[in-house]
Amino acid sequence: MAPPGYPMAGPPPRRNTKAYLIIGVALVCVVALVVGGVVWWRLSASDDPALLDGQLAASYPIAPGADWSITAESMGGQKFNSVIPSEGRYGTVGALTDGETLVTIVGDPYTSVGSSHWAVGVDARTGERWRFGEPVSTCADTIVDHSIVCRDADTLHFIDVRSGAALATVPAPPNTGSVAYNGDAAFVVEYVPAADSVVFHKITRDGPQWSRPIDNLPATAPGSGDASAFTATETAVVTSGLRVVGVSADNGDRLVAKAGSSEIGRFDDGTLVLETGDSDGTAVTNRRLVVLRPDGTTTDFAGENAIVPELATSGQRNRMLVDGRYTDVRNGTSSWTAAIPEVDVFGSRVVLADDREVIVFDRSDSEYLALDTETGRLLWRAPAGRNSAVSGHAVTDGERLITPTPDGGIAALDLYSGSPAWSLPPNVIGNSRTGDEPGPALTFALGDRLVTLTSTTITGFAPTGPRAIVPGTTRAGSSGSGGGGTQYVTPCGSPPVFTPQSFRTAAGGLVVTMKVTAKCPDGDVLFGPQTRITISDGGGLVASGGFDFQRSPLAVPAPDGGAALNLELTYPPGSFFRLPDTLNDANAAGGQYLVECDRGSTPERAPAVSAPASGRSSASSEATDTVFPAGADVTAASVSALRLQADADRAFILANLNNRWVAQLSSKHAGLVADGRTWTDQAILDEFLALRLRFNDVRLLWSDEWPVFSYQGWWVTVAAATFPGPVEANNWCRTQGFDPDHCFAKLVSTTAGPEGSTLYWN
Asked: In what residue span(s) does the Pyrrolo-quinoline quinone repeat domain sit (predicted)?
């Protein structure tokens, strides 16, 4: 135990492994002019309603550049095939996603039991990939809670799609084919020709749960039976082809058994729509749509073909096309019939239904038809890729439809007009030609990442614009339904001016509000992924951190009428040196603060974004790292900050803590070896700032200025709460979770000496 008055080592600080920048230049952030006149945008989050599950979370107003790419060859196969057996067995490409990971199959040209294929997954944001260690021939048609089930001839593999790890491996019943999965269990179905029955099997990660035969089946619809589907929800399992048979996922009880087709419509709530009828083996009559609801009940109404939207806004989530009629699945009522040529329903899709338009992919003519949601009137039509009907298809960022093109590339169509916005040729997405025909190209939405899939290549693209909007709405700041009034800003050669407005602390660190003013008459932009913003004043460094503006570029509006960007920057612990009480009033500073912004590395292809509305817009960002330039004198900056803080706290201590008992939390000097480390001035400052954020009001003393300390040259941190005596101060230490070596009673006084000024506890 140290003698009375000796400043003991305090609690360990928060680590900071990087030094800090102490450099300032006059109130500027240098943003280099992007060659080619790129455009940028920023949308206030308050104007941004919740996006739809399944749409792109960020926008693509101009053509993106590839962020990452992988080939089938690099994954050990000849080509990518669909995980859906009815697609993969014919060599069709396809994949599933859960919004984060894309899962497909790589291997031989066609999937079948006994062929060489492996399930593979790719993280859309990073491009990191995995290949499952055991061969598989097919997978379920859904990913649930980041897991999927794939199978080979005699085994079911439960796979974590985030890592490719096996969650469980269990035997598969013999003579079974496709697999379905609802997150609780896997299901397989077996056809028994001798009895003309089907047997459903339920298998969990622990093994088989039950097998249920369904007998007395109706006659099949005429056809080859090549097309089929098999799916499971929380409550039902359905196989469809020439017959539609559904059972309870809980106990295998029979729910439906009819002649029918392979098409299964699926709503977000788990409702299934099944195309059924009566058959004598040569023809189907009395065609009915059976609606199988999540509670296991069924209803039916007249109809031959049903197309459930792949993506729908809240007002359209119960709607579908039934023989061209826009129909409510809840009661079968229709609001309009599409005034369009008869659509080849098999393989056609409703790719989007929003409050403005319903967009149909017509497989017969390989084109998109946009229909008015209220009337069914044809609004526009545009060509589509010939493979847009399989398990990957057009996606949307709320303003554009990004779709395969007839030449094997991809393109973006304006949702309002159908006019082309941009396109990428086949070679950019790794597409190859087969003879005179382009290979298939598919598009997928995974969070804010656009992912394309061809038979040989998977490519990820980073967004080129701001956060997406809900389809059918108009971006804030634009005029007209088509957004034709949206204005854009470009980076200019003259940097904007940064003026600190206020400083405050929050749980996250030091918060600085900046007024950012463009010098160029058309505005400016912040966009770098590693943008360093450093603030300093005459006392040295205030804060320095790296900010990522790539995901949400910030437009600085044109300065007409005093427009500016209010930018709230948060510097977490380890990236700031000063507290508000050591900083003068920013509004009255009169240019005393120096701000430097180093754009760092920037994307090769810049985003395009619309400008904020006139006036002053607001945005916020938090530093993701601490950055500094070569030659920065971190020690000098830390000593200056400690000295300024002790000076600022001295008046408060004299007025409120003098001759009173407090809790001493720390005492350090540079070079001290304590708590397993050698303390530096920077580490001492970091510890004080971390304690200040934790307790809101702690104060810093320099031991030379207070006679209650025996030794000079120590920085001492105390909590500002006062106590009647040392026992109460030590009780406070206990209640705060400190141990006796890192918190104890201390008398602060300008007149008392070291003797009797410290009381330790056990």
From this structure: 328-425
Other C-beta atoms lying within 10 Å of the C-beta of residue 263: 20
Q: What is the DSSP letter of 330?
A: T
The number of CA neighbours under 13 Å toward the Cβ of 98 is 16
- Show which of 606, 626, 646 is a domain's final residue: 626
Q: Are 707 and 655 in contact (CB under 8 A)?
A: no
Total residue count of the chain as it appears in this document = 762
**CA 743 to CA 664: how far, in whole Å?**
6
Residue 113 corresponds to which tokens in the numbers above?
């039991």
Of 302, 337, 371, at which residue does a domain stop? Answer: 302
599, 651: one domain: no
Q: Say if residue 746 is exposed, middle or buried (CB neighbours under 10 Å; 0-12, 13-18, 19+).
A: buried
Ranges 2-6, 453-457, 752-756: which has the least confidence:
2-6
Please state which of the ranges 43-52, 471-480, 543-552, 643-652 shows the lowest mean pLDDT: 43-52
CA–chain centroid gap for 610, Å, is: 22
Identify whether 175 is part of a domain: no
Cβ count within 10 A of residue 585? 11
Task: Name the amino acid, one letter, at 227.
Answer: A
- Phi-psi region at 247: left, alpha or beta (left = phi > 0; alpha = psi -120 to 50): beta
How many CA atoms lie within 13 Å of 30's alpha carbon, on the beta-carbon side? 8
| Residue 487 pLDDT | 55
| Whether residues 516 and 578 fall in one domain | yes
- How far apart are alpha carbons 231 and 180 in whole angstroms? 5
Query: What is the distance, to the nearest Å, from the Cα of residue 273 to the centroid of all Cα atoms in its chain?
Result: 31
613/649 same-domain check: no
Check if the beta carbon of residue 359 is closer than 8 Å to that of residue 346: no
Query: What is the C-alpha to C-alpha distance for residues 506 and 480, in angstroms, rounded to an integer?
Result: 41
- Enumerate long-range contacts of 406-411, CB under 8 Å, 24 or more apart: 406/366, 406/438, 407/438, 408/433, 408/438, 408/439, 408/440, 408/441, 408/454, 409/438, 409/441, 410/385, 410/441, 410/443, 410/452
Structure tokens at 414: 């304006």
C-alpha to C-alpha distances, 50 to 357, 381, 473, nearest whole angstrom: 19, 28, 12
Q: Which of 144, 75, 103, 52 is nearest to 451 (CA)?
A: 103
Tens of pLDDT, residue by residue over 227-274, are: 789 999 999 999 998 999 999 999 999 999 999 998 899 999 999 999
| Burial profile 288-323: b = 16 or more Cβ within 10 angstroms, e = fewer | bbbbbbeeeeeebeebebbbbbbbbbeebbbbbbbb
Pair (652, 572) in one structural domain: no
Say if residue 500 is in the same domain as residue 537: yes
Same domain, 197 and 298: yes
| 647 and 554 assigned to the same domain | no
- Exposed, middle or buried: residue 712 (CB in 10 Å: 0-12, 13-18, 19+)? exposed
Quote the distance between the C-alpha of residue 569 and its chain's center: 21
- Shared domain for 584 and 714, answered yes or no, is no
Domain count, the chain: 3
Q: Is 450 contained in some domain?
A: no
Contact 553, 525 (CB under 8 A): yes
Say which residue the tokens 């894309």 belong to: 102
Answer whether residue 493 is part of any domain.
Answer: yes
Q: Domain range spanning residue 724?
A: 635-759
The pLDDT of residue 143 is above 90: yes
What's the CA dihedral at 116, 121, 127, 133 to 10 degrees?
-60
What would the pLDDT profile of 497-511 be if each residue is shown by its tens digit? 889 999 999 888 999
Contact by Cβ (8 Å): 4, 754: yes
| Residue 64, phi then psi, degrees to nearest 5 | -85, 165
220 in a structural domain: yes
Distance CA 418, CA 378 (A): 11
Q: Which long-range contacts (C-beta less than 8 Å, at least 24 apart) are formed by 31-34? A: 31/491, 31/492, 31/495, 31/496, 31/524, 31/525, 31/526, 31/527, 31/528, 31/597, 31/599, 32/491, 32/599, 32/602, 33/491, 33/492, 33/493, 34/490, 34/491, 34/602, 34/606
